[in-house]
Amino acid sequence: MRGAYGWGPRAWVRFARMTAARRAFLDGFREVLPILVGLVPFGLITGVSSVGAGMTPFEAVVMSALVFAGAAQLAAISLIGTGGAVWAAVLTVAIVNLRHLMYSLALSPWLQRYGLASRLLVSFLMVDQSFALQVLKYPRAGEDYARVHYAVGNGLVTWAMWVGTTAVGAVVGAQIPPEWQLDFAVPLMFLGLLVPAVTTRPALLAALVGGTLATLLAPLPYNLGLIVGSLAGIAAGVVAEDRLPRTAGGTAET
Amino acid sequence: MSRLDVWLVIVLGALVTLAERAVFLVSTSGKPLPPLLRRSLTYVPPAVFAAITLPALVRPSGVALGPVDARLVAGVLAGLVAWRTRSVGLTFLVGMVALWLLSWAVGR
Prior knowledge:
Radius of gyration of chain A: 22 Å
Shape of chain B: elongated
Oligomer: heterodimer
Distance between the termini of chain A: 67 Å
Order of helices and strands of chain B: HHHEEHH
Radius of gyration of chain B: 20 Å
Strand order of the largest sheet of chain B: 1-2
Number of helices of chain A: 13
Number of strands of chain A: 0
Helix content of chain B: over 70%
Largest sheet of chain B: 2 strands, antiparallel
């Protein structure tokens, strides 16, 4: 076979790389599937809430395709529904997505060897689920693992699922009567995200300060209550970290 | 919001999100983040999610159960489910069903 097709050592290396890349892509695809089950209701609700806030189904789908960040989209959608300002909605998206800075930083050492286009693509596709899979995978996989293929493998299927479920939600949502009070789905989704995020006592304080202040300042225009509350909650968490033991109910270590 | 405003939110929201995702991945400087900023980022999820959730649960919806609002009661129930199960899907389901039952009971 080697004679017939003229496969020298370099061709074998190229072939091995190609199959390794394909295997990494399929790894990414396969490993994200169980996680995507949880994304289905989230995407449906995002679609339903979008049209509930006065967006067209087309706008809802484009938003999911371009922004690709559920929590930030839901926060922006609620502002669109209540007639907030554009800059307030964009600032809200920026604040809800601040955690991506942390993800970007954590992944950057692993992707240094790739070109700009690859790193931009991984950035665009990097949602919570994909990030979590990547930080678990890369330290275990070998040095020459096809990381970008892995990231794109799980990112692409997540993106397709997100856009698809938003589309279904947006089309179905237009038929749902207001008595169903589906706008309540938004705070419920965030409640489901909030509770697992409260892992330490400083995190609990961050949540209490952020939630209380945002509630008290809710009458302020431009979503300022959310913005001020969030920033104060973050500050409270940092201050508490210096003064409280880190684990809930644990003894002081410092 | 006008149609133009909605599209501005979509496009600018997409750009700001991509910028946050790409900033360290694209830069090759390898400079570490200032420690204070790094610690601050840890508290973004609890602070932000609480700042979105709590006002929406406390805000009166018009469906009152005596002194408390139906949404607050449904929210507390859903919070308990979130705490015990850590499942976003179950939290959503219990919260919505509780709100429907409470609204139906009050509406009679």
